[in-house]
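Meet our chain:
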Amino acid sequence: MRVKKRAVWFLTLLSLAAVISVYYLMNPAQPFNGLKIFSDRTLTNTAVDDIAKLTGNDKTPVTARSDLFEEMRMELLNERSQLKKTLTLKAASEKYTAEEKNEAFNDIDVIVKKESNEAMLEMLIKTLGYSDAFVKAEDDRIRVTVQSAELSKSKADEIVYTVKKEIPTAGEIVVDFKSESF
């Protein structure tokens, strides 16, 4: 009797292993690529349109990019890349204590979170109908620069409201307008 139970268990496990093997051979697991989420095509085709639909905003975002805004983005990217490189070298160095290395990792994490918040805010602000936007978070201050033909207090208030809604802990919010003809 005991041999039959073992045989049944063995055959059950063997058949289960065979079924699982066939399943994975027919449907191989795809490695997760987190950067694919932030590809230009994905952001252009889905995220902006979805946000506009969710917020009930009927304004169509304009996707024209200006050289000034690209230059500001590149300067900020270079500055932060250098800072992250320095912090990474500090974390990998044997000269520093565990606390200092941990602080370097935390600083890198803060920079990455800041960059993702800025990108999200730029996307949200573009859904308000601006052709381009640049967001820079500095300590407790957020500077928003938008490309627009006109400067109005109501538009600035709308941007401040959008930023405060997404980041309630934001301190001072400064809104700058750049002319579309610069």
DSSP finds five helices and three strands in the chain. Residues 78 and 165 are 29 Å apart (CA to CA). The two ends are 89 Å apart (CA to CA). Residues 60-64 have pLDDT under 50 and may be disordered.
